[in-house]
Specification:
alpha/beta; Rossmann fold; 306 residues; two-stranded parallel ribbon; 8 strands; single chain; disordered N terminus; four-stranded parallel sheet
């Protein structure tokens, strides 16, 4: 059987199996089931939900989210959920087609009310940069939107969700203060953050960094000769001490850039996915901390403010 036909057959079988599942996997009055499109959102939702909801991510740690290819089992998991959370702003280009296969399940866009930064070039020019969670201040809007969605889903636990959201927001605010102080130690002439994907626009804005990248958003063309040459020319003028690449994409083009621009590859940054529990970024807050540590170490900035 050709692969597309086989995939459709498997999808049909999984959907039939899902239809045979009870409407809710938990007992009446028990915690609701929530599915998030990727690991960062799932971690945020777990912090807001506490033990008031069961939260899981469609994607696994380390997965690329932009062009994720949902499996038939993903459809079944979403159909069995009470709520699906997604980022929006064009991040999950596959989501609307995916969610059209799911019926009678609530969904919430967690970037509602966020003022997006536009993508400056390429095929997605003038469309919103979807990586808004990379700003801790914007992440507070994510937390509030998740709280609201959970409270509407399960009003009996609204006070629990509100208390958890307040506590989590305070932790995000405290980390923002710490990151701001630490990143401020980078000398002005070194404040160029060069990465593979243009995923740090919000963070660069918050912490007065100058953003540079190979490609504006993970898509079909990544690391083309034109992209590599353009970044090499920019870095030879700005001379940052190091360049970086995100964990979910191939870092080979950036390593080439580092060699030809006479700088060094400073390490891996985490954006679109958390790591496994034994990795450096198993939670959203640890993701922000790990990125700052990698940048500061590569830039040789004073870490005494830590």
């Amino acid at each position: 059987m050709p692969l597309p036909c086989l995939r459709r057959a498997l999808l049909g079988a999984f959907l039939l199996a899902g239809a045979a599942l009870p409407a809710a996997a938990q007992s009446p009055g028990g915690p609701k089931r929530v599915v998030a499109t990727f690991t960062v959102l799932a971690d945020m939702a777990r912090n807001v939900a506490g033990d008031g909801a069961i939260v899981e991510s469609l994607t696994r740690p380390g997965a690329e989210i932009h062009d994720y290819d949902p499996t038939p089992q993903d459809v079944v998991r979403a159909q069995a959920a009470d709520l699906v959370l997604w980022n929006g702003l064009g991040l999950e280009r596959w989501f609307e087609r995916f969610f059209s296969r799911v019926s009678d399940v609530r969904q919430a866009v967690v970037t509602e009310g966020v003022a997006p930064i536009g993508i400056g070039e390429g095929p997605y020019r003038n469309q919103p940069n979807p990586h808004a969670w990379m700003s801790p201040t914007v992440a507070l809007a994510y937390v509030e939107n998740i709280r609201r969605a959970l409270a509407e889903l399960d009003p009996s636990r609204a006070e629990l969700f509100a208390a958890n959201a307040r506590a989590y927001s305070e932790r995000i605010r405290a980390l923002d203060v710490t990151l701001r102080a630490r990143l401020a130690t980078i000398p002005e002439e070194r404040r160029v953050l060069a990465t593979c994907e243009g995923a740090f626009s919000y963070l660069a804005r918050d912490y007065s960094l100058r953003e540079a990248y190979l490609w504006p958003i993970n898509a079909e063309e990544e690391g083309t000769p034109r992209q590599v040459r353009a970044l090499i020319d920019l870095l030879r003028r700005s001379r940052p001490p190091a360049v970086f690449c995100e964990s979910t994409v191939n870092d080979r083009p950036m390593r080439q850039v580092a060699r030809e621009a006479r700088t060094r590859f400073g390490g891996v940054l985490h954006v679109d996915s958390l790591t496994a529990q034994d990795g450096p970024a198993p939670t959203y807050l640890r993701l922000l901390e790990a990125n700052a540590e990698t940048i500061l170490q590569a830039f040789g900035a004073d870490q005494a403010s830590r």
